[in-house]
Amino acid sequence: MCTGSSSDSNSNSNSNGWSRAPGMVLKTLVVIGGAVLLKRLTKSTTRWDHARSVAQSLSGEKFSREQASKDPDNYFNLRWLSCPAAEMVDGSKVLYIEQAFWRTPHKPFRQRFYMVKPCPKEMKCDVEVSTYAIRDAEEYKNFCDRPKDQRPQAEEVIGDIAEHLTTIYVKRCERGKRCFYEGSTPPDGFPNSWNAAAYCTSELAVLKNNEIHTWDRGYDDDGNQVWGVKGGPYEFKPAPASSFVDMFSPLNFPPQSIEKRIEGSFVLQE
């Protein structure tokens, strides 16, 4: 009986041990899973994350066709094309950006470098988007349309970054707003002498589906607007890959007075 009693005791002990094991494993998994989930939920988005997001949204091919079709007297059907061109030592992204009429994409009337990086910690913004002139703009025409081995390489790009023109200070949009990011230059803008201007201002907004809104304006010493559209920003939207645009649409054939209209609404040269 002693043997039998000992056997029964061991059996009960083993049984209780196995019955507790699954519960312990489950609790451990719950604790680990909760810790991982909490870490993911509490992980803050860094300013570098914001900078990468803004740079990605600025990149690609976009058009203002929809806006031009609604208000052809004030907006043109323009093509916005941008792509990564280089990366600075500190991680700042350099984008090449050009704008042209939809019908003549190989003849851009505006070419710039954008440098995208986080705002300094002491500033109340997330991302800086700075615009620079290009030392030899002719060499960069249709940069994004070319194979990578036929473009100026990163070292050349960095060497061709010329005069600083403007900087837009961008913040993450508040909840409930239509945009993801928005920002502007300081109220007093940056020096600009084109078309009798004394200074210029710029605004930028990033919306869903990589849509971007840009609004550049020039003012004289008295605060009168001397160039740039007055009704609101240009709205550039990515064109669906499957969409077909009528090449013979009047929107794609600027009238003979196009130069004068551009001078009144869009800057060719700063």
From TrEMBL:
Q: Which CDD domains match?
A: CpcT
Question: Which residue positions does the secretion signal occupy?
Answer: none
The family line of this record is: Belongs to the CpcT/CpeT biliprotein lyase family.
Recorded GO molecular functions are: lyase activity
User: Which keywords label this protein?
Assistant: Lyase
**Domain of life according to the entry:** Eukaryota
Recorded protein name is Chromophore lyase CRL, chloroplastic
Instruction: Tell me which InterPro entries the record gives.
Output: CpcT/CpeT, CpcT/CpeT_sf
